[in-house]
Amino acid sequence: MTGKLIKLIFFRLPTVVKLLASVLIIMTIFGTMIHFAEPGRFPTIFDGIWWAFITAATVGYGDYVPLTTIGRLIAIALILTGGGVIAFYISSIAAATVQYEQNLMKGKIDFKGKGHYIFIGWNERTRQLIRLMAEKFPDTPIVVIDRTEKKILYEDYPVHFIHGDASDEHILLKANIKEAAKVLITANTSKAEKHADSFTILSILTIRGTNKDIPIVAEILSKTYVENALRAGASTIIRSNDFLSTLLFHELSHQVASTPFEDILEILKRKQFSHMPVTKELEHRSFLEASNLLMLQGYLLLGIIRENQYKIHPPADYILQKGDILLAFVSWQRKEI
To answer: What InterPro entries has UniProt attached to this entry (predicted)?
Structure first.
């Protein structure tokens, strides 16, 4: 029974480990044989094992050399068997290294770090954000989850890629969602708005099921899905369509003296419009107090939504209540307090 268990454990080991074990066993056998065949030339078994490794690896220092016929026959057998095993072991290590790099590039390797940001969705917005993060927060690891991209080269983007569906708990665990710092979900603009937002909400629900406390920033395309995303557990909602509509309106109606198109684009690169629920910290505070607190975090509070009614820039003493939704500009370069 013990023998079968040992065999079972051995065959379940990685190929490289099994090859290393085979090399050690073969070198030990030949080292022991040469020691007993020529004890004068090889005083200890370790001397024999040393000679076996040097001979099989074709290094040939020449410090130990068999002189008898039996000793030379052992050397010939070692060269024909042990040399091939060592060569196969070295080539297997090289092949395993190449395979690991291929799997890493194709998003098949689990992420083992912690305190990282998870970006869901691979698009131009994500790529620009990765460049900003690399400039401002180079020490923050980034994990990208995407089901459409086939591979992402680390040389091009310093991220750990996980290929798969972010609404699948198994994929989130591969990204180590339980020890992540934040999650960003970008909308798939190649899909219909309804389908893109539905996937975003499903991803939020799955994330909340694995990590109930992690902040989730989600991009929603359709206004009708904002509250669903908040109920699903999103911490902050970004509505990029609001900016696009405002930008188009500005370009249709602006005068010559108005802010140039390029300046508006520069502003939009730094700011995003967000919806987020009132936190316990902000409940029962005045609009002015909430504005000051949020400003320290990089938010510019514009107004609130209460019972589906928009209240833009309410009075300073307007009291926030549980269930209110805050409307604010948010900068990606904000600092946490």
So the answer is: K_chnl_dom, NAD(P)-bd_dom_sf, RCK_C_sf, RCK_N, Trk_Ktr_HKT_K-transport
Q: Reduced to 3 states, what is the DSSP secondary structure of residue 145?
A: strand
Distance CA 38, CA 30 (A): 12
Structure-block tokens of residue 127: 């790529």
Q: Are 160 and 176 in contact (CB under 8 A)?
A: no
Q: Is 164 left (phi over 0), alpha (psi -120 to 50) or beta?
A: left
- Terminal-residue alpha carbon distance, the chain: 61
Segments making up each domain of the chain, as ranges: 2-105, 110-238
Angle of CA points 312, 296, 233, to nearest 5°? 65
Looking at domain 2-105, its CATH class is mainly alpha
User: Would you say residue 211 has pLDDT above 90?
Assistant: yes
- Is the separation of the CB atoms in 190 and 197 below 8 Å? no
pLDDT class of 241 with cuts at 50, 70, 90: low
CATH topology of domain 110-238: Rossmann fold (3.40.50)
pTM for the full predicted model? 0.61
